[in-house]
Every structure is written in C-alpha cells, then in structure tokens.
C-alpha cells in the first residue's frame, strides 16, 4: 500500500526532578545538601531512511513519545538523560506543524534529520541552591515538561523526470522499458494507482531517476480521478515528459489532451506548469500519421521538442532518454522553497493575575504550578527563594501596578499568603 500523507502526535520526554537530600555520613554530623539534578528528557527526532518508500508505518501507529529523564538522587547523583526517539521516514518527506501548517523541515537526503520536539530540561537538585547564607535549602526544581504537538508528514517523491499524461497513454510501459522498474501494465485506465520510480542508466549519459505519475484527467486539481493525490509528486522534478497517445484509438484529440493536462498543472500550481517539457508521441506503431503530424506542427510552434515513439515496441525510447539526460545537464537541482518556515518557540512558563470576587489577587498558570512544585512552603529558606523568584519574574511589581495593598490576600492554587511590603 502506498501512503504519502500522515498525521502523528509526538511528545518529547519530560525532564527528571531534582532531588532534595542532605549528607548523612557517620563522621559528617552537619552535612550539607547533596541532591543531584534530574536528567534531561529525550528528543523526538525524525530521520531519513533510504530503505523506506512510503509513510505506511504511520497509518497504524499515531503516537510517539520519547523517554523521560530520570530523577536526581542523593550523594549528588545526576539522573540519567532520557533516550532520544528516532522516527524514520522516506527521503522527500515534508514535515509541517499541524496547527499552523508551517514547515518544520524538508528532508531530502539520506540520514538527514531534524528535532521536532525538544526534551525537557532536568530540574536542579537542592545542592545547586546552596549559598553562604542559604546552607540547607529544602527545595529543588521539578523537571521541565517535554514538548508535544501534532505534525503532518507529506511525501513528495524525489525524481529528476516525471512522466505525465492521461491514463492508459503508455507511461508505465516507458518506465518499464527504460529502467529496472516493473510497474503493473494493462490496457485499461488507472492501471497505475501509485507512483513508480526507476533509474534510467544508459551508456554515455549520467543516470537519472524517473517517476511514472498516475494518470491525470480533467478536474484532477479538484480531486477528480487519482491526480490530486499524486500531483505533489512531480513538484520536485526538474523535467516533465508529457506522454500523448496519437493513435486515436480512444477517439481523443492529441492537442486537446496536451492542453487539458497543462491546464490541470496550472490550476494546481503555476510552478508545475512552468517546468520544461518534452512531448513523447506514443503508440505511433498503431498508425494515424495525421495525428502525429498535427501534434508535431503544434509543438514546433511552441518550441517544444517532440519524439515519435512506440513504448510497446521499444522504438524511439533511447533517443528520448538521451535528450532528457542532456536537458537535465542544463537544469539546476531545485531546492524546496520555504516561505513560511516553522520556528520553534522557547519553552516558557506563563502566568495571569486576576482580582477575585472576595478581593484576593489570584495568580494562575504554568509558572505557578512549577514554582509551587519546587518549594517547600513550610521552610523559611524555601519561602525566601519563593519570594525572590516572584520578584525576579516581575510578579510583585505587577501586583503593585494592580493596586495591591499591605495585608491583601494573594492566592496561588491552594496556597494563600498576605502581601507585606
């Protein structure tokens, strides 16, 4: 099964908590703090695996979580960092933030990787809070939480040349005759249900990758037929070979076919429509020279190179591939244009202050949760640290700006205290 889009949930590991511990050796009666730091949480990393061809693995598994960091221990023992989680994807995978649709990364090379969720930092143990005036801190930091988000994966095949055209015009036959690929071939529409890749390797030319894109029809850009699912796969190609059936056995006009397919490309993407094209007039072994001459005259007017071929009889294919290889020498390798690239925001704890009906000043938010986890409100040294953090983060000043007065109540979750200047 070929799967080229997926949506998954990723969560990096939480940081381990710092430890609260004091030395208790036999001959050290007044030992100081020795609580170690917690380990950092593991990152979620997406990495290219050259052996993968589709996003099928993500059809059945949607959630991926990295390992959390271990908590710190006594005797200044640091917690172990959590292991990174490596998620493997095929080359050509575009990663987007599901909420903003911004591109996080475009992975096109083997072994290329990107961190999509950074692990939380481990909390500091109480040994780190010891100072000449605070010799026995009875508090430590909790670990920072990891990042979590939904991301979209979108696979765009990496090929130099794309074969385009209506269904049943012979694209798969061309691919099978010129490469080692073995696509399904039959005389009915939509034989090719998934893109196929093959390597063209002829004497005297640099080899190149060619993709057979499932047949397009009118309305493909709106979802008609199979085209909308696979148009993305020719966005990376440098050159298009437009295969047209000139035999007339299906009663279609070759010039109209050319116009309709190019209109679909244009409606889907102006960039696609502007890519250089070669026309391959196929099935010439079935007669109808008039159709071929008419198409050739039109292509000559547009300065588009046309080749008379019969894919089934393997006629004209070598010349077509040689010319394609020559054109590729003049066409630069395109890099994905990223206009709205994703920039990860630094993890920050926030708070809000509101006035309750009873007159109390209520401070809430992730900053409050983390601060209350890190202090022991029944310890005087810990409370001094608590007040210092409030002052440093601007909470005290904001309370003053809101008109707090001596003796007013400040509430943080289940903890209340009187404001004293």
TrEMBL record:
Residues 159-329 form the OBG-type G domain. Residues 1-158 form the Obg domain. It comes from the Bacteria. One of its GO terms (biological process) is ribosome biogenesis. SUPFAM superfamilies: Obg GTP-binding protein C-terminal domain (SSF102741), Obg GTP-binding protein N-terminal domain (SSF82051), P-loop containing nucleoside triphosphate hydrolases (SSF52540). It is found in: Cytoplasm. One of its GO terms (molecular function) is GTP binding. CDD domains: Obg (cd01898). Residues 341-421 form the OCT domain. Keywords: Cytoplasm, GTP-binding, Hydrolase, Magnesium, Metal-binding, Nucleotide-binding. Mg(2+) binds at residues 172, 192. Its main location: cytoplasm. The keyword GTP-binding applies. Its EC number is 3.6.5.-. One of its GO terms (cellular component) is cytoplasm. Monomer. This is GTPase Obg.
